[in-house]
Design brief:
Helices cover about 40% and strands about 10% of the residues. The chain contains 5 helices and 4 strands, in the order αββααββαα. The radius of gyration is 21 Å and the shape is globular.
Length: about 170
């Protein structure tokens, strides 16, 4: 094989590798649940086929990093990232209202305490968590990843899916 043919094969290989790298999804994988709403958290509009899916990273509130959010357009994505505190509360309230049945009957923090209709609701990475009291909310918010992992283990030990749906 002559040098020109070898160079052509090398260039073709590099182009293929570059193409595969560009086709791979950019950014971190989301760590919680997929965005469960069918509306944009900024505009409130229904999400269409052109919705922009984003996994948040580099946020001022580090608890938002790894959260998947969908927007109706890139402008709404930019608005959300610029002022997340303006939109997160409303988005989390909508996620809590749309959530299916909660699969646990005990508090994640104080594991012997039951949760009832007065349970405190926290949304972390698109998933709803119910806690027995305000003190437990504070503890949860100090290390939400730890409690999210414990939640997954508790739900799995009961043979239930984490999102509360039936198997």
């Amino acid at each position: 094989m002559n040098i020109r043919a070898r160079l052509s094969l090398i260039v073709a290989g590099l182009v293929t590798v570059a193409g595969l790298a560009m086709a791979a999804p950019a950014g971190p994988d989301f760590q919680g649940a997929a965005y469960p709403l069918d509306t944009c958290p900024v505009s409130g509009e229904k999400l269409g086929k052109d919705a922009v899916t984003c996994v948040l990273s580099g946020m001022k509130d580090k608890k938002l990093d790894g959260t998947q959010v969908k927007f109706c357009c890139a402008k709404c994505e930019a608005s959300f990232k610029a002022e997340p505190e303006k939109y997160v509360g409303k988005m989390n309230d909508a996620i809590a209202k749309a959530a299916s049945a909660y699969p646990l009957s005990k508090c994640l923090v104080m594991k012997d305490e039951g949760i009832d209709a007065d349970a405190k609701v926290v949304v972390y990475q698109n998933r709803v968590y119910k806690l027995c009291c305000k003190k437990c909310v504070g503890r949860f918010e100090k290390d939400p990843a730890k409690y999210a992992k414990e939640y997954d283990a508790m739900v799995a030990s009961q043979g239930k899916p984490a999102d509360g749906t039936k198997k």
